[in-house]
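Hi Y.,

Following your request, here is the sequence exactly as I used it, all 280 residues.
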Amino acid sequence: MITGKTAVVGLIGNPVGHSLSPPMHNAAFEFLGLDYVYVPFQVENALIEDAIKGAPSLNIRGLNVTIPHKTSVLKYLTALDKPAELIGAVNTIKFDEKGSKGYNTDGIGAIRALEEVTPVKDKNVVMVGAGGAARAVAFQLMLSGVESLMIINRTPEKAQRLQQDIEMKLEVNISSGGLENLRSAVSNADILIDTTPRGMYPHADDHPVLSADMMHGDLVVNDLVYNPLETVLLKEAEKVGAKTVSGLKMLIYQGAEAFKIWTGKEAPVDVMERALLNVL
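Below is the corresponding structure, written out as tokens. Let me know if you'd prefer a different format.
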């Protein structure tokens, strides 16, 4: 039961009606018996400053941040954690007596998902895509000690810009290229991560970024798309015996990190996963 003592956390974005975060977090709060509730708030671009500055006065403890506000919130926060500062985007905010601190748990979620299957340290990684998700994952891979990262994008210039931005902030082994470089890059890779929306519902039958003949059995393949749970890319990877990681895992683990930031408690990831599967 929601009362005057219930702690409120939530999501700001535009739109937010499609978000799977409310059922995931509310199931976790209920399971642990925490007097919290998670609420989605649709916030127009022009009102983002009001939303951030007004949240503490409403005793909102924390917020997730989604498109299109992940970068625009930065100037209204009093502190950032290291990943958020490097990435230049925030997906989680905690409000307390010290102010408002921004975090980016997207990359951490991706790494935790991968490490269910393989450690990422000292691995050679190929990442397809150079958008917001790719940026978060790329910086976290670098912070996690991968041996090398190659960013492949349909527009090579965009991949190069992300490469250069990372090189300005960290001393790392990183390269970039266009789709024509994908086959040769994957042949020497330990991990492949597709951060593009290709194969996402309702376009689940789109051709994958690469087919089974371009992969090998020692590869770990992670598709950040979580609807459908088994994308065309993951089906192709299974044909050659490669290990696969569903995008649902990143969604769960980025949420679990936010849950811990707000509550100080470890999230019941199995409960969160069941809640998501019920919705999907």
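Residues 108-245 form a domain with the Rossmann fold fold (CATH 3.40.50.720).

Thanks again,
Q.
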